[in-house]
């Protein structure tokens, strides 16, 4: 009877050595992302993640020396994934306005589809740990740098007015979408990704387009009003 009772435990231990190093690391990262999204970085311990995986803490520390290192790897993996997807998508789109729309639409889909993790990233980027904040800033600059490059190319091609600040366009786009993220997190209302993408693209592009008509104050007000109606309850 004793030997029978011990058999499941032995079988469970074998599970921990069957996975390759890469597979075990991927498993830990996937579960960590899930727990960080659900509980937040500060409220999560390595013991929490280990328990959900059926592992001991030491197994996780074998792959990641600290919770901070684990969180950074989760964020890094997420940014690598979305940056590669964004770069590939931009390369397949022609025209500055179309590319601008694609970037806005892609980012809106990302923050609404992975709202929990994006909120953690946003909070930690403004948190007290400079190591995490600095690394997030570096990863984010590469990701948002795709928009800056599109604006620069638009100026070179004559589709965007000379003197337009690529950094200001980036801040306008991602600053607006940050508000969408908080709306999603507080469950104020569902987000119409297509409608918001179109309105934000129209507002930004008509302001920077080289051959577009100059926006009158009332046109700007109308576009802003439409966008606000989409972003507020």
Unreliable stretches: 1-16
Principal-axis shape: elongated
Separation of the first and last Cα atoms: 64 Å
The proportion of strand residues reads under 5%
Number of strands: 0
Supply the helix-strand structural class.
mainly alpha
Radius of gyration: 22 Å
Share of residues in helices: over 70%
Summed up, the helix count is 11
Mean pLDDT across all residues, rounded? 83
Largest sheet features: none
Tell me the series of helices and strands, N- to C-terminal.
Answer: HHHHHHHHHHH
Please provide a written account of the structure.
The chain is an all-alpha fold. 79% of the residues lie in helices and 0% in strands. The protein has helices at 2-18, 21-39, 46-53, 57-63, 67-91, 96-113, 115-125, 130-157, 166-185, 193-208, 217-231. The longest helix has 28 residues, at 130-157. It is elongated, with a radius of gyration of 22 Å. The protein starts with a helix and ends with a helix. The relative contact order is 0.09. The model is unreliable at 1-16 (pLDDT under 50).
List the helices and strands and how they pair.
Layout: H1 2-18, H2 21-39, H3 46-53, H4 57-63, H5 67-91, H6 96-113, H7 115-125, H8 130-157, H9 166-185, H10 193-208, H11 217-231
Please sum up the structure shown:
The protein is mainly alpha-helical. The protein has helices at residues 2-18, 21-39, 46-53, 57-63, 67-91, 96-113, 115-125, 130-157, 166-185, 193-208, 217-231.
